[in-house]
Specification:
Elements: H1 13-23, H2 33-40, H3 44-59, H4 63-75, H5 82-90, E1 102-104, H6 131-139, E2 145-147, H7 150-162, H8 165-173, H9 180-191, H10 195-202, H11 265-273, H12 277-286, H13 293-299
Parallel strand pairs: 1-2
Length: about 300
């Protein structure tokens, strides 16, 4: 009678945890389905200890890992949830972060965001991830200062692409810049044909609780002519409410804040190409953007 051959799936889960913490290999859970399931649903303390030990091994070999710190390193892993982070901070092995250290937001937190423009799809809310997790990071005293424009403003760009307006408001309130990567978030909003999103990105004092998640319907209006070009009518001036950073006249009125990003001719050209007529009018009449000759020919 042949002897029974023992394999990893025959070992107790406690011993598998010890092997996992000793190996510190991200490939180990992929060796078999059983091991993957055991390690995926391991206690948060095991995940926390794995991330701490893995970070200690990384800083011994990489100056980048030393500069970014434990929280930035841990956030890169899908197992790093709110409960796992709290377990990390409770661990006696958790190092204290230097005062100058910043937390980098990984792209994985925002990569899954996609538009919800189809009929029947639910609108984005404050309870949709990653918004609750971001609030937890900002509210936790052990999390170092967060670099909100990590990876060239990837978070804001992806939120605009998805039309995730609660997340956009949150990121802007924390200092996210629409100027990142050549004002890519504004370009994405233009392609969505969403004037409220464009105004939210540009104007610091813009508040509109009725911003829609989907693209706005087209307005059938000619782009050419004096009105579209921002030419004042004979009897008066343009009385629109946008754009200027100058103070408002009259006592008790609030001084308008400066825009986050300046509207340029490339943005106007993109709006014309997308046939976003309300955005074209906004850029020209309220922001005073003058089209170049190529854009004028496209409008005629």
């Amino acid at each position: 009678m042949s002897e029974r051959v023992l394999a990893l799936h025959h070992l107790p889960v406690e011993l598998l945890y010890e092997i996992h913490l000793f190996a510190l290999s991200p490939a180990l859970p992929l060796t078999c389905k059983h091991l993957h399931a055991v390690l995926k649903f391991a206690p948060t303390t095991i995940h926390a200890e794995y991330l701490i030990r893995s970070h200690q091994a990384a800083i011994a070999q990489s100056a980048e890992a030393r500069a970014r710190g434990l929280v930035s390193y841990a956030l890169r892993f899908p197992i790093c949830s709110r409960n796992v982070l709290e377990a990390i901070f409770r661990s006696p092995e958790c190092p204290s972060a230097p005062p100058h250290q910043a937390t980098v937001l990984p792209r994985r937190l925002f990569r899954h965001l996609a538009p919800r423009d189809e009929p029947g799809q639910p609108h984005w809310t404050d309870d949709d991830e990653p918004l609750p997790f971001l609030r937890f990071l900002y509210d936790h005293p052990r999390v170092p200062r967060i670099f909100i424009d990590s990876y060239d403003g990837y978070a804001l760009t992806r939120a605009v692409y998805a039309g995730f307006t609660p997340l956009i408001r949150f990121l802007l309130s924390k200092g996210a810049s629409p100027e990142c990567k050549g004002s890519l978030p504004v370009t994405v909003a233009i392609r969505r044909k969403s004037l409220p999103l464009v105004r939210m990105l540009i104007e610091r004092d813009y508040h509109d609780s009725a911003v829609a998640d989907g693209p706005r319907p087209k307005k059938r209006r000619r782009l050419g002519g004096g009105a579209a070009l921002g030419i004042e009518s004979k009897g008066g001036r343009d009385t629109s409410s946008g754009g200027s950073a100058s103070p408002l006249s009259g006592s008790g009125k609030r001084r308008k804040l400066g825009d986050r990003v300046a509207v340029n001719s490339d943005m106007l050209k993109m709006a014309v190409k997308c046939d976003a007529r309300d955005i074209v009018e906004y850029f020209m009449k309220e922001k005073g953007c003058v089209p170049d000759m190529q854009t004028v020919l496209m409008m005629s």
